[in-house]
Design a protein that fits this description.
The chain is about 15% helix and about 45% strand. With about 325 residues, the protein is mainly beta. A hairpin with a 2-residue loop joins strand 1 and strand 2.
Length: about 325
């Protein structure tokens, strides 16, 4: 940094000296051409030219160098790996100690640049949109449901998990490549059933609503919406720039139940009909948490979430443990 400042100062002084010398030469040439004077009088014309060796004063204060050069004043600021040079004319009242510039004026030049440490520059991968498939497992970690849960069987290809992660905060661990990631988001899970029978709260628990079963069913869906808050440990490796790095993240995601609904679409007498029941009920846990793993390589990014808490509260419905996996589009 000191070497750069010395080179910058030297270059500026040389430039000003050359400009002064060129001005002196032009003035001398014009004077000789326009005046018919004796050779012994030419010495007096030379003596009236501006001096090439004008008095210079250099003062250094922190990252700033002040230079007084003839009728010019120069300020050089080295900060955040950049060099800023400002040259102005001296004004009446400027003294020999170069107090014409204040520290506040110097800071104004870089008011939009902040001193940052590597750990402050760490940026994780949370904010964005995630799209995947959702399902659930039994207590024995099987995707095959027992007969008593037959009404909960899913059409996996249409059971979507959509996460809208709208806020992010990252904190590095002394580096811009490893740290903690948190934020907020919305998780929407759509469970599409293979059965024609919707689910409902019957006799204090979740059960099939056979009374409202519909023939010619087009859609039988159960949807949950949670506000999510993650805490993820992320390590970024390979690649130089943020967008070129691979990364691996593991952590937990907490969720707060916002609402849920069921939707049944069917055909009756040739007409398409829809029945939707919304609310915060359905015996969902008010809060829950999931284990999450995330991996990415450049544009290819994936996530997987597993909830060790049952979809429904204890003894209020089938004991099923949700999971979801899919692709990530960060912003």
């Amino acid at each position: 940094m000191k070497t750069i400042r010395i080179l910058s100062t030297t270059a500026i002084l040389l430039s000003l000296s050359c400009c002064t010398a060129f001005g002196a030469y032009r003035l001398q040439d014009e004077t000789i051409d326009s005046m018919a004077i004796a050779p012994n009088d030419q010495d007096s014309s030379y003596s009236s030219l501006p001096a090439l060796n004008q008095e210079k004063e250099v003062t250094t204060k922190g990252d700033t160098t002040y230079i007084s050069f003839g009728k010019k004043k120069i300020r050089i600021i080295e900060k955040n790996g950049t060099t800023d040079v400002k040259i102005t004319d001296k004004e009446e009242g400027d003294d020999e100690h170069l107090d014409w510039a204040t520290d506040e004026e110097c800071e104004d030049l870089f008011s939009d640049k902040k001193d940052t440490k590597p750990w402050q520059e760490f940026k994780g991968h949370w904010s964005g949109v995630e799209f995947g498939l959702c399902n659930y497992m039994t207590r024995s970690n099987s995707l095959q449901l027992p007969d008593e849960y037959d009404f909960m069987n899913l059409r996996t290809g249409r059971s979507w998990n959509i996460n809208l992660n709208f806020a992010q905060q990252s904190v590095g661990f002394g580096s811009d490549r490893i740290g903690l990631v948190s934020g907020m988001g919305l998780e929407i899970s759509n469970y599409h059933f293979t059965s024609d029978i919707p689910i409902a709260m019957i006799d204090g628990k979740i059960a099939p609503d056979s009374v409202n079963a519909r023939d010619n069913r087009l859609k039988n869906r159960f949807q949950t919406t949670y506000l999510t808050v993650p805490l993820i440990l992320e390590w970024q490796f390979t690649g130089g720039e943020y967008d070129d790095r691979s990364y691996l993240g593991v952590g937990v995601i907490g969720g707060v139940n916002l609402f849920a609904n069921t939707l049944m679409k069917y055909v009756e007498n040739g007409d398409k009909k829809k029945e939707k029941i919304s609310g915060k009920g359905y015996f969902l846990p008010p809060v829950r948490y999931a284990f999450t793993a995330r991996v990415g390589f450049k544009a290819l990014k994936m996530y997987a979430n597993y909830y060790p808490m049952s979809l429904f509260r204890k003894d209020k419905g089938p004991e099923l443990y949700p999971l979801a996996a899919g692709l990530v589009l960060n912003f």
